[in-house]
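Go through this one:
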Amino acid sequence: MERQTRAFDLAQVRAETPGCTEVLHFNNAGAALMPQPVVEAVSAHLQREARHGGYEAAEEAREALAHVYEAVAMLLGCQPSEVALVENATRAWDMAFYAIPFAPGDRILTGMAEYASNYLAFLQMTRRTGVRVEVIPDDEYGQISLSALRNAIDEHVRVIALTHVPTNNGLVNPAAEVGRIAREAGVLYLLDATQSVGQMPLDVRALGCDILAGTGRKFLRGPRGTGFLYVRQEVLAQLEPPLIDLHAASWTAPDQYALRPDARRFECWEASIANRLGLGAAIDYFLQWDQQRLWRRVRDLAYLLRTRLTPLPGVIVHDRGVVQGGIVTFTVEGWEAEMIRQALRRQHINVSAVSQQAALLDMQAHGLQTLVRASVHYYNSEEEVERFARALEHLLAAGPTSSLS
């Protein structure tokens, strides 16, 4: 079913985002400002729980909850039966990764910019099963090298695991091209879309991924404590979740159980119904607009920000890739990233400080300990970009000691 989209209206979007009157929010890669319909969806259900009871409120919201699965499916171009709702993207990713039946000698192929939580899972799996983790180098543009990936594949490769958009870089990895390589080789493909979903249109069929994990709190503008997992129907039978309960499986005999036939085998029975409804509201809000139009706006704002930051004395922008998204990362000579973050926060400007621990391989390779991460979104304005650049310029002119006052 195709959905009618509305013309983008920045004034309307900002009016529907209460936080726009409070802060200049360039921390969308951390947690974006929620629009009012999301806030109302969450708070309305919490009120129903308080007045009617938690179980009873969930029963009343049955149709609305079913719609959340449909919304995720529409967002990703899949079937609702291929969707699981999980409390965050890391746990969604974990539930799928630890379900893969690894054997000694299996190889995991990944990229230089893989996220720390994912890589820690790789390392744990090497200790448990004797699999090998192999990092595909970057190409000359800083993205995963497709030629090196293709050359690395043999009969021992069990999975290609890729972070679509790194946490520490404006880079957008060529996920669809990786998907084509995975399909040609018949290799399982696990995509971490935590930082890409809500920034850009995603279609799992075009991406060629078998598994995709995403979050609600970042560019989708949903509540914290929400995530989802897509698992292609054809690979479900290969994957037994590492944890199950009476929702994920049925207790069929004293010594037997049967897993659900759909992706909800990766879910847990207990969850925040209010947050799930908020996630559905966030996806509905995103899908009302032309996604390509929003993606162009995010890229344009990020380009404008990079253009304003690059000439500032001592500022180095570190983003790479053929395609760059809404994450803008930079360092400032003589300043710690956390000092910049705190000084801007006192001016009601939000950014993040990213440490080497978040993406160890990538940041070590480029000699980086910390970065300032300023991440824009479609509801940000060109005036905010200019205001941010002026604030940083004035801060740098005053010197690091001024940030302590």
Q: What stands out?
A: Residues 150 and 287 are 35 Å apart (CA to CA). Residues 291-309 form the longest helix (19 residues). The first strand starts at residue 24 and ends at 25. The chain has a mean pLDDT of 96.
